[in-house]
Amino acid sequence: MLKIEHLTKHYKGSNKGVSDLSLHIAPGDIYAFIGHNGAGKTTTLKCVAGIQDFDAGAIQIDGNDIRKTPLACKRLFAYIPDNPDLYEYLTGIQYLNFTADIFGIGAWEREERIKEYGEAFEITASLGDLISTYSHGMKQKLALLSAFVHRPKLLILDEPFVGLDPKAAVILKDTMRAICAGGGAIFFSTHVLDVAQKLCNKVAIIKDGTLVASGNMEEIVKQGQSLESIFMEVVEHVEAN
Amino acid sequence: MLRQIRILTKLELCNLYGLNVLRFSKDKKSKQKTVGLLMAWAILLAMLIGYVGGLSYGLIYLGLEEAVPAYLITISSLLIFVFGMLKVGSAIFRKEGYDILCAFPLAMGAVAISRLIKIYVEYFLMMLAVLLPGILVYTWNIRPDAGFYLAGLLGIWGIPLIPMAASILMGTLIAGVSSRMRRKSLIAAVLSILAVLGIMYGSLRLSVMDGNIDPEMLKNLSASIMILLKRIYPPAVWLGMAIIRGDVFGAVLCACLSLAVFGAVAAGVVFSFEKISQSLCSSFAKHNYRMGKLKADSLLRSLCKREFRRYFSSSIYVTNTIIGPIMGCVLSGTLLFSGTDTLKEFLPLPVDIDGIVPFVIAGAMCMMTTTATSISMEGKHWWILKSLPLSTKNILDGKILMNLLLLLPFYLLSELLLIFALEPDAGEILWLALIPAVIILFSCVYGITVNLHFPVMEWESEVRIVKQSASSMLGGMGGLILAILCAAAVGLVPKEYTAYLKAGICAAILTATAVLYRLNNREN
Fold this sequence. Notes:
The complex is a heterodimer of chains A (241) and B (524).
Chain A: E1 2-10, E2 17-25, E3 30-34, H1 41-48, E4 56-61, E5 64-65, H2 70-74, E6 77-80, H3 92-102, H4 107-120, H5 136-149, E7 154-158, H6 166-181, E8 185-189, H7 193-199, E9 202-207, E10 210-216, H8 217-220, H9 227-240
Parallel strand pairs in A: 3-8, 3-9, 6-7, 7-8
Antiparallel strand pairs in A: 1-2, 1-4, 4-5, 9-10
Chain B: H1 2-13, H2 19-24, H3 28-61, H4 68-92, H5 98-103, H6 108-142, H7 146-155, H8 161-179, H9 184-210, H10 215-218, H11 221-232, H12 234-244, H13 248-281, H14 299-312, H15 315-338, H16 340-346, H17 353-365, H18 371-374, H19 382-387, H20 392-422, H21 426-453, H22 462-466, H23 470-474, H24 478-492, H25 498-522
Helix pairs in contact in B: 1-6, 3-6, 4-6, 4-8, 4-12, 6-13, 7-12, 7-13, 8-9, 8-13, 9-15, 11-12, 12-13, 14-20, 15-16, 15-17, 15-20, 17-21, 17-24, 20-21, 21-24, 21-25, 24-25
């Protein structure tokens, strides 16, 4: 579903960025992407979403190159950043309609999906209000709704659980599992390692822009261990070297 | 409190004209953009220096040197008032960063005062830009004594205060009234536009009154200029005369009077700051939406609708861009009711005025296009369009279409009024309709081109984009400058050749528009 090959992105005048990062995400994968602040997670996700250009490497989504055929790629995924700055001058329903129009979703289909997810996330009553009146969690829910409206094959999420209430977090996890069960894939960054360990079948750890560990969750986190202890172990090991 | 004001003022001033970005940014592109913006300002400054210096020299040449300081003070005060009226409301009561400041142990009065000081510094620099070249010309030619310099030094710091106070009063009133309404931005935009139209009407009345000056007075031109200036802005004449006479006491008195006026208005702002800011930051949420039937729109229609909603959500964006089209209609209406003679009075040019009317209307319509800042206005929301399956062409078409649809009613009304006013024949109707349409189309596409090259996506206040960005200066006025150049060309050519020239101009502009449109769509 998603192939990242030797991705390299450096910011001028800064030593931050990503170096030679390769990852393969197959259909059905829920892939956690973890690392400390400034490790390069958001940069990687932005490159995958086609928001940021990169210096070297290649990114393919379902066989389409993000640089050569960006529109074909973007039709397949939904991206939600860590701080969903949505159009504050639109109401929630106007924003959802706008997204649905861009993806060419029919009136009846969008109605059904907005009803379904709006009720699940308990946001329907607020859809007539301006987004500027929304709390961070409500914006996050609306961003998720706008993603689910067009049924993406790949979900790229940056810190999706931040700001969500417990019920919404459970619904999001269930929806992520459902998308993967239907042949989709999810690539998301998180600092909540407990959630990552329970939810994901694969994990990648990034440190200072370099991938230091990746693979199946069971292979990386052995029985009796926690992802948290493995993360600290791997990071300290890299620092020591 | 003083310490808080000092810290906050330092924060306000540190990125004046983007200097902090220039100093600390390691990103070459953002540095280049800041340098580009500073260069655009420098060009405008050079033009202003040339204009003011020339004007001062002209007055001295005519033996009207007594009027120079008062004239310069009036010009700078009017500039500060006009710029300020559209800007200070949103600069003082800006929502960005208000919540963070509220959380600090700060007196809200200190926040208000620091913002007022920043505005004062900006306008003091603007005043210097107007005043210095003229004063240099004056001192070079007249060689005044030391009293002139002393009175000048003690008096000039007060010049920006009264126009600032007037613009703050108006800005605060607009912000105060709109903060009580649900559609704050739209109300603020409508009130600002009404204020600008009121000022335009007032200045027209002033010039009409001018005609009633006693003919005896015209014998003494200097006296009549002073009377006119006194009508426009009396403190300018008082201070100007005090400076010329080297009257130190008079100059200090003028400055203190200005300070007193400003102090009274500033006290009102400080007193109402928290209440207005909180009202502006508060929002109305009904929380009663029920799912009904939804409607699907085409891609372009959906993008265009979103552009319109963005446009009308920002009072400063609306105010800055709608005045031109309104002026175009007012001008056409004036022609209908007063004939072309009024236009000939306004534009005392040695050319066929009827022939350049389409360019004048086009220039007014394109005075400030929305496209010139439409990309920058996306700001922190840019990621949405970038992550959606939209081509550059889709996004830019939405922006251009919105600008064209916004101008369409003004264009149609203006054309209708002109047809009744000028009673043109079929050939003239063609030019009357075609020339503004072609220039409007060009200016919308050109605005996009400039904004693509000078985008500013990280900003805190819309004022930074709409009023102070390189794109708004270079892109927004492209159509106006083009209209002036074309009008000049048509005006200089013998009447029998103007039709050929107009056809050539239209063809050239359409070709340039097509080229720019293609180049824009290639951008990533």
